[in-house]
Structures are given as structure tokens and as C-alpha cells.
Amino acid sequence: LPVPGGSDSAATLEAVYRRVGTVDFGFVPGRGVFAHPMGPRAGAASLQQAWAAIAAGVPVDGHARQHPELRAALSAFAPAQHAAGE
Question: For residues 14 and 25, what is the distance between their CA atoms, to the nearest angstrom?
Fold first, then answer.
């Protein structure tokens, strides 16, 4: 079971999924949960929201418009394009 590591969060989940190419992987988002700007509960929710978007084939960025926890995770943890709101 592949378990990529290194500062994972809702902002990196889609890229990891695409890179691995299957749902059979472990995801260890310590910082993405415990350093979430809205707290750990919101960090966990942001992961669930990101995965729901991926499973539905919906862009994670677009899904974040209706989910404040996911929006905050993308803003806090994603590369510059998310932080800038692109």
C-alpha cells in the first residue's frame, strides 16, 4: 500500500490520487488536520470535502466555494495559485 508523505492536506489529496492512479493508498495528513486554520475538526472535514469532490469528478477548487473548511485548507496549504484565489 503506497503511503506518500510530506505535509499532506486537502490541498494535496487530488494530486496524490492522480499520481498514484488508484484509491488504494494511505494518506497521512498530520499538518493538514492539526495546523488547519479553523482547527483539527475543520482539517478533518476539509479532507472529507476534498475526497467527495474527487469521487464526484468535481474540481476541488470549485467544491471549496461551498465548503469553508476546504476553502481555508486550500488557502493555507496549497501552492500560490490557491492562495491567490485562482
Answer: 12
pLDDT tens digits for 64-74?
A: 999 999 999 99
C-alpha span between 22 and 49 (Å, rounded):
18
Contact 40, 69 (CB under 8 A): no
**Tens-digit pLDDT profile for residues 26-48:** 998 888 999 999 999 999 999 99
C-alpha distances in angstroms, 78 versus 1, 24, 86? 25, 23, 11
Torsion of CA 37, 38, 41, 43, to 10 degrees: -40
